[in-house]
Amino acid sequence: MARIVCLGEIMMRLSAEVGTRLNQTSQLDVFYGGGEANVAVSLANYGHHVQYASKVADNAFGQAVERHLHSSGVATDFLLKGPGRLGTYYVEQGIGQKATKVVYDRQGSVFALMNELEWESTELFAEADVFHVSGITPALSEDWCQLTIQLMQAAKSAGCKVSFDSNYRQTLWTQQAAGEFLQKALPYVDYCSAGHMDAIHLLGIEEKTEVDVTNYYQAMQKLFPNIEVFFSTKRTVHSTSVNELQGNLWIKDQCYTSKNYVIDPIVDRIGGGDAFTGGILHGLLTEMNPQETIEFAAAAAVLKHFIKGDCNQYSEDEVRQFMNSESAKISR
Amino acid sequence: MARIVCLGEIMMRLSAEVGTRLNQTSQLDVFYGGGEANVAVSLANYGHHVQYASKVADNAFGQAVERHLHSSGVATDFLLKGPGRLGTYYVEQGIGQKATKVVYDRQGSVFALMNELEWESTELFAEADVFHVSGITPALSEDWCQLTIQLMQAAKSAGCKVSFDSNYRQTLWTQQAAGEFLQKALPYVDYCSAGHMDAIHLLGIEEKTEVDVTNYYQAMQKLFPNIEVFFSTKRTVHSTSVNELQGNLWIKDQCYTSKNYVIDPIVDRIGGGDAFTGGILHGLLTEMNPQETIEFAAAAAVLKHFIKGDCNQYSEDEVRQFMNSESAKISR
Amino acid sequence: MARIVCLGEIMMRLSAEVGTRLNQTSQLDVFYGGGEANVAVSLANYGHHVQYASKVADNAFGQAVERHLHSSGVATDFLLKGPGRLGTYYVEQGIGQKATKVVYDRQGSVFALMNELEWESTELFAEADVFHVSGITPALSEDWCQLTIQLMQAAKSAGCKVSFDSNYRQTLWTQQAAGEFLQKALPYVDYCSAGHMDAIHLLGIEEKTEVDVTNYYQAMQKLFPNIEVFFSTKRTVHSTSVNELQGNLWIKDQCYTSKNYVIDPIVDRIGGGDAFTGGILHGLLTEMNPQETIEFAAAAAVLKHFIKGDCNQYSEDEVRQFMNSESAKISR
Amino acid sequence: MARIVCLGEIMMRLSAEVGTRLNQTSQLDVFYGGGEANVAVSLANYGHHVQYASKVADNAFGQAVERHLHSSGVATDFLLKGPGRLGTYYVEQGIGQKATKVVYDRQGSVFALMNELEWESTELFAEADVFHVSGITPALSEDWCQLTIQLMQAAKSAGCKVSFDSNYRQTLWTQQAAGEFLQKALPYVDYCSAGHMDAIHLLGIEEKTEVDVTNYYQAMQKLFPNIEVFFSTKRTVHSTSVNELQGNLWIKDQCYTSKNYVIDPIVDRIGGGDAFTGGILHGLLTEMNPQETIEFAAAAAVLKHFIKGDCNQYSEDEVRQFMNSESAKISR
Amino acid sequence: MARIVCLGEIMMRLSAEVGTRLNQTSQLDVFYGGGEANVAVSLANYGHHVQYASKVADNAFGQAVERHLHSSGVATDFLLKGPGRLGTYYVEQGIGQKATKVVYDRQGSVFALMNELEWESTELFAEADVFHVSGITPALSEDWCQLTIQLMQAAKSAGCKVSFDSNYRQTLWTQQAAGEFLQKALPYVDYCSAGHMDAIHLLGIEEKTEVDVTNYYQAMQKLFPNIEVFFSTKRTVHSTSVNELQGNLWIKDQCYTSKNYVIDPIVDRIGGGDAFTGGILHGLLTEMNPQETIEFAAAAAVLKHFIKGDCNQYSEDEVRQFMNSESAKISR
Amino acid sequence: MARIVCLGEIMMRLSAEVGTRLNQTSQLDVFYGGGEANVAVSLANYGHHVQYASKVADNAFGQAVERHLHSSGVATDFLLKGPGRLGTYYVEQGIGQKATKVVYDRQGSVFALMNELEWESTELFAEADVFHVSGITPALSEDWCQLTIQLMQAAKSAGCKVSFDSNYRQTLWTQQAAGEFLQKALPYVDYCSAGHMDAIHLLGIEEKTEVDVTNYYQAMQKLFPNIEVFFSTKRTVHSTSVNELQGNLWIKDQCYTSKNYVIDPIVDRIGGGDAFTGGILHGLLTEMNPQETIEFAAAAAVLKHFIKGDCNQYSEDEVRQFMNSESAKISR
């Protein structure tokens, strides 16, 4: 199996029970997650050797992050600890036509405040096959914009493929800032999860335009011929409880599309995209053919919606079984 | 904002978890609610100055009612306490095709046993804009039939608008008794929530007749020209988990109809009608136009279905956001 | 009412909460159930005098089984206790497109290890009207294959009707072994719950063949003219959360079919078939007409899906009310 | 084993978790219990044939009472059901120096409203060895004062021993009324649980007097020579969490005293006295010697304090094991 | 009753269940509290008109704070809301010899970042009898050191008594900084809760010296003759579960000491000191005599230890009942 | 830090809540533990490189064991998986004078059925400093008696110290069988946890004899001069909730005794001995002096009693802090 380094922020998530508002709840469920950490867990579940690099508070919650990652088999040789706080976010679970609401309390976290790289990059990327990072990291600060580029450069120098999930978050930065970062970062990227928002930032198209995914990937490809693979999910939101989800994968000038899933009802949508990315990377790293890769990734993404917490917790066998199942029987 | 007096019984509600029968449950969730109290909470959420007048047991549960109302900002200057019991009801939550079952244990409550008004009505209605009461109150006893009329008269004398939610409950009184009360009470009413059952009682139509809501309101209007506003929800019950809901508002000889919502899945339907009434009164009191009023009220009613407990717990902003949203995304 | 003897294994069921995987759960819900025990509970709910014969561990869990049965009014004069273990099974609840997963830990249970009958069969069947057993029992061991036949013979000698639910479980035995047992056992059977799998075993038809239920019952009837009644459910699995269910009853050369129910959403499917069998036996024992019988049984089966645990917990009145209801209102 | 008829009210108990006040709790634990019902459960646990006679609401909670009794093997041939309510009480669990607080909501229950005997007394006491009733029953109403005497008379006529637990409750009646009832009832009593309060009522002694239990029993014995056995617990309350408990048994002019137990910490004290009475009756009915009887009863009473709910849930073997144990080891 | 203004930070508290470590818990209980807010709740429970002035995040948790205060009847006319975060702290409950551990995450809260007074002080103190603040507030920042003095000055100008609870927290500031602040602040103080640490800061005594409380108060009094009242608890920690607690009150050159309580076992110690301060202020404001005041305050402090959460939730009657009770019986 | 191999069975533990009997509980808490696994977790917490060798079921519960070990940083290179079951045990938590009761369901587990070594012993012990095993393993079967000796021999050959915890369990084997095994095994042992029972087995002393620990160790030492270190805890059981615990360590002909702890109240005693062994091994491996070693081990053992589950979950720093603390304050 491959060796992968995922790097980014990981946070404590505190969720109220469905049907209870955050301003009234007397109990919160605790999970730990973050875009890159969720991808790390997926890949470790599939048997890869995964390092998760980050920085967490040197308190009970930093320890909890470590336990969380270890429990899924993710290595933490590059998980730094220091004085400060762990970013936190709160989830008011939606249902039916009521949207899920997230309240962030992530400012000033020990990760967000990092202003120079605290890893020795030759160690970090030694023998690594892939470096995975997301667009949330550069969105945390101007320092992180630069540090992210530095990390990509170091990874490339070390002979590592760079995987990037753009993951635009409007509460963290502007579209313009995101666009500028993408222009600088994408020349280092090999595998790119990019969606509609990235088209807006990079191709100068209008927000409301319906863009065919093939045209969009073609245009992106022209701008960044270094990118080997593009991928994204197409999600149709019927309600908080019912979504359709389909995966797209662009590789060697061809677009592959997965089965279209109706997910009904959704237990917990958070981390669905990360499960998809984990599935794509697994397909690429184990040399599945493109169609198999996109089917696997879409199945992984869908499965994530049926469990609580940010992480896909299914093995390769379980994802395949789901991918090939026709219906939902009791398996005795 | 306006000053509103809501008056009626408030009870303790004890609910078993979905999937567990009342005769087997080892745990019950505790809520407090009642038709007028739920309207009071909605209006306080929207920023009005609301007094809730009632009488509760002078024990831990009377205190709990007070805490419940205070937590939502409802004033309790007219919440009396006395020896006796608080009415109680038990809910076995339905789901899918299985109906929700309610077991009442409300007889002999300190409120139901009241046989003369224990408030000084000049104080009660001083500076009040609206007095809200429902048809559950007169259904409690013959005394309460008379006291309800007295309260309406006193409210009118004090220059207060009278809001009345007919809310027919067949376990409390007969259709005939309800009809007789309505004949006496409606001449004092300004805002009237009235549905199909009231048409039966007042217009002498058959129970199974499909009556167009416009014709029905026109006929009611002729009988009671003093009523400025009629409103009601049209609920189509596909199952306990899936309902359609649409609001109707009759004002100045015209009928306004809201968007038709599919609520899927329902978390807790109890109090949906009260949330609707709260929304209508808020629209009337803040001079929204009729279409905005009915859309606001319908949105408020629908939102209630996605949270546990009897009360709508959304602010005006949240109701408006829902009213204008197209789909259910995670709002990060 | 009738006197019925149900005999089979009963196990402890430990279920994780929906959305939580068995390999990560920190809490399990405890239920007790087994095919014949669930039928026993249904019939006791309907007012019959039911004996449940089995053997359980002489420890806290054997006591728990006894309490479980007693709480539903099932008599346990023939519930033996001995040193050993109670069979256990673990349930990872599915939802939406994610199947429910069962992990069995039933080997070596005190019941499965029984190698000679430990009841005096004249006592066991004294005054009994019906003896009910399922195909799970002979699947436990070769000894149990023989003991099951012995029990059927003894029941017939005692003038008892024999009810048999084939209930094929592929994790317990092969199709061939099941087929051989059926050939020996069915000549003693009066009431037979048999489905598609039994057709495969007995009629030599292909697994993928779509067989019309009427043809299938006719063919079965020819082979075993002693069988008075065949019955089965037709379940269409749209997802773990949504199934359609319809009952079929073959009696005196005619096939009766119930209303087709959409069950949406399912709370807990386990025991649905047993609730159906309980309904059929109740119809036969109280001399309902065939159409009423199949409607009653189908309604009972559907209701089971809306409560947690293996047992149907509805009285005859409640099943009838559901059978006749048009929609799911709050019944206040 | 013996045949015993216990008769009295049984209620639903709703308890908040330790550390949470009733006026703030959002969840209540459900138990069912009553003085005589708890004695019934104890005796059924010890293997006796016990009938529990009472009247409960014909709703889900009446069914719950039935399930509760059945689960412990208590027969309910004389458990009547009728329209009305089940008495309820609420418990705010104390701890340390904070007392436990009980809020009763038992007025107007279907049992309390009974004004003539609804059982055929020849059936009720047919073949019964003991009839057990407590002083809570006559305290419910003047009707029940008379009905209790009638029941005692009928029991005596049927050749039954009468067991009576005085169980004075100041919230239900005055000391004078209790004293008058005792004067009328005690002539029919064979086994009498009587404490300090009864001495006050009957012997005209001062409430604050320290009375030696032997003197007290002697004086009682002189007044009612028909009483064969007196028994009571001596409880020293160090705090809600720590009590000392010792049992006294007066039989054939001699007083037997059990080991003195320190109970630390107490989980749930309610029902401790009923567990003691159950132990005494078991000793008497199985012809233990007096010292063994009082030791068994005291051990049973103490054990009850370590489990939640009103009922002693230990078998004779478990009580004996506890009675003979020296310390609390893990029994593996 | 009196009018009191309490001002300070209020935080969300997230507690793991006893026996579960923060780094492993999957669930947290939610409470809201802060030194001055807890005093506010106590005083509102006793019937005073209390305003709580603070600043909270304009999100779900700011709303939750508001609901929390309202539910206890505390007015929030001066509770500001603004963008930012609510301070948070996490509690790992100790038990026995294992200490309770608190992890703070309060930096950068919207309250701590306040750098000028955002209330109009003439409005804030209009008609107020007492202004209560604690030493936690000046410890938050240098700005708050100055703002606290300004508030005290404004309160004095408005004719308000100033109550100050020194409440030294070593994680927030140094002893020296605390000492300097005290020198500046105490000249404005009328009622002062001061303990051993304050003696160290102000009187220059050694940390390990055993100081008699009377001598200590006398010395303090000489330095600050303006202070009318000193009070403090003497707590002897036998373990996390068992403490002794006694109250001291210095008034008019005399020291009054309460009963010494053994608290065993403690449910939740947090807020015990605030409950004591609330009791003292209530005594002073209702003109209890000094001995009654200190007994009331000590009883209130002890009661707090038996409930979860930061706030004393007992009425004056309940505190008095506890103060006068001899033992812990079930009060039926 | 050192490299340690721990080998033994690990089981699923299912615990009912305190105050609820196993035969009535509707929920069970899930933990994973076993003597050697608990030692492994302790040592990994202290920073050692620990391998846990065992065999578990290749199902969800085998995965759960893996997650459990990984979360504490224990390596599982030698954790085999195969078809079969994971041993299970059930705990009814005692409290006060009520003992904790354990119901085992461990027979036929995939580990217990192992009949030849499935590890390559040169790999297993490569570079290992210590091999730790307990007397539970040979008690599982005659095969395991022999395999345990083989493992000890292989470890010695590999230059590994052998640590052995005798841990006699009377439900698994007889005293005679245990004694015979000890005679064969102890010649290979370097570090030996041995208590009173071992003295009985080996020294032929009477079960009731009070043996001074020093004399006992001296006698053991004479028999097995190869053993460098003996250690054991002395536990005085006042009740299930209160124990005293003291550690003894015999090294180089001298006996070192720790502080005597009163543990009050105990949350969960299971695993206390394993935490002690973990502490001793840590002291030996990090070259603490003997007194420090025994104090550290005793403190670790005591701390374990305050958390739920089988494992000590404290770091070296936390154990040292506890070891040096005088009392239990809130550490803010």
UniProtKB/TrEMBL annotation, chains A, B, C, D, E, F:
Carbohydrate kinase PfkB domain: residues covered: 1-304
Pfam families: PfkB
Keyword line: Kinase, Transferase
Protein family according to the UniProt entry: Belongs to the carbohydrate kinase PfkB family.
UniProt protein name: 2-dehydro-3-deoxygluconokinase
